[in-house]
Amino acid sequence: VFRGAPTWLEGVWRPVMSSMTVRFGLRNLVRRPRLTGAVIMLIALAMALSLAFRAAHTAWDEYAKYAFAHENWDAIVAFKVPLEPAEAADILKTPGLGTIEPFVSGFGAICDGPEPEARCLDYRIVGIRAAAELRKFRFAEGGRFASDDEPAIILNRNFNRVRPYAIGEWVWIKHKDQLERVRVAGLTSDMTIGLAYAPVKVARRLLELDDEITGV
Q1: 51-75 burial code (b ≥16 CB/10 A, e <16)
Q2: How far apart are the first and last CA of the chain?
Q3: Tens digits of per-residue pLDDT, 159-184?
Q4: What are the DSSP calls for 61-87, one per residue?
Q5: How many C-beta atoms lie closer than 10 Å to residue 22's C-beta?
Q6: Residue 1's pLDDT is what?
Q7: C-alpha distances in angstroms, 113 versus 102, 109, 164, 168, 206?
Q8: How does 118-136 read in b/e, with b if 16+ C-beta sit within 10 Å?
Q9: Which has more confidence, 25 or 96?
Q10: Alpha carbons 145 and 154: distance in angstroms, whole number
Q11: Measured distance CA(206)–CA(125) in Å, rounded
Q12: Which residues, at least 6 apart from 174, have a Cβ–Cβ distance to it below 8 Å?
């Protein structure tokens, strides 16, 4: 049943809502408040999701621009299979290339101990030279390793709440049957997940890559 509003209320809203369409719309909103609230909430959630995505995308984009502005390299090339020095020579002679820093990489695990039951987290291990200059680390704590054969590792402290690491503690890198005991030398603040840097000779022993390189 549709009944008119009290006379005093008619006098209040008639000047601002003379349209019958608007008045019927207001009536429908008021007579079913739970449905009205649900619709408003769904619209608000849809807008919030879109705005949250935009904010997250902007944050990542601005971070990437800031981070890469401080790097000294223009491109990273990863080979599908490890290459012998002779096989990689032609690639390293590509016209237009400037400074080149080869690296070795492979998958392993960072473990709390050498025992089979020790807790381990999967990581991609990248071996670089101690004197490498193209990769600039954003250290939150600690720093780089001093030599190509130092038992040390650089880890990212972001996105790792399962097992936070501390500067100076000793951990084990495991790859198949190979084990290397290393000290946490540096903790970076990067937008990377499961990526660790080790001295190149340590990584070669661990990954069984005596002379090969996996990228530049």
Answers
A1: eeeeeeeeeeeeeeeeeeeeeebee
A2: 78
A3: 888 889 999 999 999 999 899 999 99
A4: HHHHHHHHHT-S-S---EEEEEE-HHH
A5: 12
A6: 53
A7: 30, 11, 15, 15, 16
A8: eebbebebbbbeeebebee
A9: 96
A10: 8
A11: 9
A12: 108, 109, 110, 111, 114, 120
Secondary structure element (H or E) that encloses residue 123, with its range: strand 120-128
pTM value? 0.73
Residue at token pair 């016209």: 95
**What is the residue whose two structure tokens read 């392993």?**
108
DSSP 16: T
Residues 72-86 have pLDDT tens digits of 898 899 999 999 989
What local confidence, expressed as pLDDT, does residue 213 receive?
Answer: 95
Cα 27–Cα 31–Cα 34 angle in degrees, nearest 5: 130
| pLDDT value at 102 more than 90 | yes
Q: What is the pLDDT of residues 128-144, one digit of tens each?
A: 999 999 988 889 999 99
**Could you tell me which residues come within 8 angstroms of residue 136 by beta carbon, excluding any fewer than 6 positions away?**
70, 71, 72
**CA–CA distance, 135 with 101 (Å, rounded to integer):** 9
Give the pLDDT of residue 3.
66
Cβ-Cβ contacts under 8 Å for 194 (sequence gap 6 or more): 121, 122, 123, 124
- For 117, half-sphere exposure in the C-beta direction (CA atoms, 13 angstrom radius) is 0
The confidence score (pLDDT) of residue 2 equals 58
Residue with tokens 């381990």, as numbered in its chain: 120
